[in-house]
Please model this.
Amino acid sequence: MRNYQTSPFSKEKGFCYVKTKRFFYKRRVKMGDPLVSVTWWKLLIVIVVFLVFVLLVLEESRFEENSNRRRKERTVKQRTINHCEEETEETSEVRLNFGKDGKKLIPVAVQDADTKTVLLLGSTNQEAFRQACDTRELWLYSKSRSTLWHKGATSGCRFRVEHIRINCDQNSLLYLVRPYGDSPGGVCHAKDPDGHFYETCFYREIDISTMRLSFILL
Model:
């Protein structure tokens, strides 16, 4: 059986050169020719493998690029958070976050300026905070009534805001207040057995061992 080998394809369309043991001879390419079919299949396999390799390289490069971008975004975000925290803790500017509409609530602890007794814990929004600063009276936001709450407008227990303190993260407030005017005394809406308003909303204590409440003598 002859040992056929193909040389580089001839520039003449439809022909190739086939080598026997001694010489090359010109041969017309036919459809289904095993000699040509094997050569094209090998070429096709090489092309497919090359394309798969290129796709894998591109996919790996894209994955690495996305990972680097996400890593940079996390780094920038963390630096921004740290920078904002440092600015919030050290700045002399008021940066209370009441939200875009000014309705976001911020917790407020109300304390007696003289006795240091914690009177109540409430909330304020932007409007209530502005009212408290402008009038120097105790304005809060009532969650139960969903409206501004002027402390003492109904009960007569009015308080003057002497100082306003803010925590390190600027997300909670402390009002130091004093009663004024014809205030009947007390701050809570609840009354003791004698019919007087309690001096603080925290007039009961939890017994940790029994998990029961007991009244505190103030």
About this structure: Confidence is low (pLDDT under 50) at residues 1-21, 23-31. The chain has two domains: 5-89, 106-182.
